[in-house]
TrEMBL record:
<feature type="domain" description="Amidohydrolase-related">
    <location>
        <begin position="63"/>
        <end position="409"/>
    </location>
</feature>
<dbReference type="InterPro" id="IPR006680">
    <property type="entry name" value="Amidohydro-rel"/>
</dbReference>
<dbReference type="GO" id="GO:0016810">
    <property type="term" value="F:hydrolase activity, acting on carbon-nitrogen (but not peptide) bonds"/>
</dbReference>
<dbReference type="InterPro" id="IPR051781">
    <property type="entry name" value="Metallo-dep_Hydrolase"/>
</dbReference>
<protein>
    <submittedName>
        <fullName>Amidohydrolase family protein</fullName>
    </submittedName>
</protein>
<dbReference type="InterPro" id="IPR032466">
    <property type="entry name" value="Metal_Hydrolase"/>
</dbReference>
<dbReference type="Pfam" id="PF01979">
    <property type="entry name" value="Amidohydro_1"/>
</dbReference>
<dbReference type="InterPro" id="IPR011059">
    <property type="entry name" value="Metal-dep_hydrolase_composite"/>
</dbReference>
Amino acid sequence: MKEDPAVSQPARYWIRSPTIWCEERGRFEPGLILIGDGQIRAIEPIATAVPAVDAVIDLSGSWVLPGLINTHVHLEFSASSQPLADFEAETAEERLLRAAGNAHRLLTSGVTTARDCGSSWIMLALARRPDLSPVMLPRLLCSGPPITVPKGHLHFMHGVVHDHDEIRAHIDRLEAEGGRSVKVMASGGQMTPGSLPEETVFTQESLNLIADEARRRGLPSVSHVLATESIRRSAIARFDSLEHCAFFERDGQGVIVRIFDPEVASVVRDSGSAMMANLSTATRYLDGLRESANRTSAESHSLRQFDIMVENFGKMVELGIPMVCGNDAGVRDTPFEDTWLEFAWLVKGGLPAADAIRAATSGAAKALLIDDSVGRIARGYSADIIAVASDPLVDPMAFRHTTFVMRAGEVIRPSP
Ligand SMILES: [Zn+2]
């Protein structure tokens, strides 16, 4: 994999701020960050004398943090009110252009690392040759087409498998084409016509094989789990990350409802898997419904289920399940600039602010198996650094406006 040449410049400079995020202590502390060759070389006391030849970026008055990590986006999707129709109407080339633009939007909003959780095969070009992109990109970990069953969730991305040989062949191809994450659709999904979200579609043996194959190759594994049984099986298979954990069941009236299962939740807790809750997905649409005077019963149902989702998230937090920040950007009414909104909802849903910061930095890096080099302001880590104008420990909306973005030592958005 080639790195964007613009991102590896040899400059050596310092960032000074009285408020720099310290992962270990879970608070902001004064310091000077020395950056060289795209990496953090040292953290020195703020009073340290800087050599006159070195440049200094003064971020006093800003809160300085590692670049945000969004663990779940779909770069090819339009984030409109009808992303599937847009996807089907566009050619592969058009989607690739869209994907680069969406990735750039993530970067300028402060997301310096993103995982794509499902795309066509062609989009892996962005993972292989980020140096060819006409716009600056965040670090991308691409899952390529999700592994799915015939007619299963997102089958039109061409990740359909029929047996274990095809699962191995899929992961071989994924790795060869630049994929750096293995995604499976363990249940159906709401976006794919004909696929049932409350249905678990892979056996325990198949899920074990997928997670084991990913582990063997050092790739992070991620499982889409809406149905309760799909959560259980994926936790038993020890996927690095479980997406949504919706606890979907179909009730007597044929309506899909969220029924929290404490026993399955404890299986998740014991598995060590992280959870990606995407609480903020489509909240702009839901906010509109909340203000509407004459809602349909289906719309009222959606609002009730949203409240239950946030409640269930609080229960998972109480169990101590590690949370990671992802928002399914690209799906319905979920723009690529909105990672800040997921942070705000994580806090609203009961995650302490320091843990929400970890969910979007060090914790997310851990679920992506890159925590030895990404997600902290520490010596030897990639110089992915952002600044915001208010204290995220106090202000859940702090990430709405980033005032400075650096990716691997390259200033993407200079401080005003
Ligand atoms: Zn998704």
